[in-house]
Amino acid sequence: MVRTHTQTITVLETGPVAVISGMDDGQYLPPGQMAILTAENSYDYDEDIVLYEWIVDGNVVSNSQILEIMLPPGATRIDLMVKDSRGDYSTSSVNITVGSSAPKLSDLSISISSIVESRPTEVVTTVRLEDLDGTTEIVRGELIYGGVSDSMFFRDDGTNGDEVASDGIWTSRFAWVVSGGSWVRVEVWAIDGDLVSPDQVATLPIIESGSEGLESWIVDLGLPIMLTSMALLSIFGLANRRNRISEIAKDIEVIEGWSSFDPMEMEEGSEPEFNSQVPKE
Predict the structure, then answer these.
(1) CATH fold for domain 104-209
(2) CATH of the domain spanning 27-98
(3) For 39-120, where are the E strands, in sequence order?
(4) How confident is the prediction along the chain (281 residues), in pLDDT tens digits per residue?
(5) Where do you find CATH 2.60.40.1930 in the chain?
(6) By three-state DSSP, how is residue 235 classified?
(7) CATH 2.60.40.10, the chain: domain bounds
(8) pTM greater than the 0.70 cutoff
(9) Of 45, 38, 43, which Cα lies nearest the Cα of 11?
């Protein structure tokens, strides 16, 4: 006798579960450090997840399982949404706090070493900016001379003398016209909200109009004359030294000639001859 039993099993479809890994909710990040999160631990028992979306401030920033992103200073919420083939979805979120940094300037450079009074001179001034959170957008300066101050504006956008945009080298280019005083002073600083960097400072001498001719003469004529004179003196000294060595060699030959004299070779009773004459009475 054979008995047959039939049973129907219904497998219910399941929705996905979003899981954020890599960073904890409420985690702090130092300024300038990248946030790295992953959705690889998200799952769906049907194994039919078809979409990942990372959302920051209401904007979709990535559709990958792994998110690498630089966040601005302060608190930021990051949402993950996963969706399966049936359109069912799940979300998860974390809150990240990023620290802020103060701007720092270095390597102040000026294209000239001095400036002639009252003569328009185009000058390129550069300075390096370091800001870990990347939020500094203002670099300013002052050109101070004879009790007068001119504003300086720096840019990092690849225009008006700036060679490469967004490379951290900020540039100011304009014609300087200075008068009064003996020195011109350059002060440069960066502004990031309420934070202001320490100043970078440089000073240049102001040359009175007309006196630069002496400097030009020294460079164009005086220096070559001085170098030529030094070369001639060296040649004269070398020739004098050679003459002196020759005279010393001759004296040594005379001395060696006297040392070879043998009195035993003279005949007995003979008298040596002298070149000198005896004066007559």
Answers:
(1) Immunoglobulin-like (2.60.40)
(2) 2.60.40.10
(3) 49-56, 59-62, 66-69, 74-84, 89-98, 104-110, 115-116
(4) 788 888 888 767 889 999 999 999 999 999 989 999 999 999 999 889 999 999 998 899 999 999 999 999 999 999 999 999 999 999 999 999 999 999 999 999 999 999 999 999 999 999 999 999 989 999 999 999 999 999 999 999 999 999 999 999 999 999 999 998 899 999 999 999 889 999 999 999 999 887 555 555 454 555 566 677 676 766 766 666 666 777 766 666 666 665 554 555 544 444 444 444 444 43
(5) 104-209
(6) helix
(7) 27-98
(8) no
(9) 45
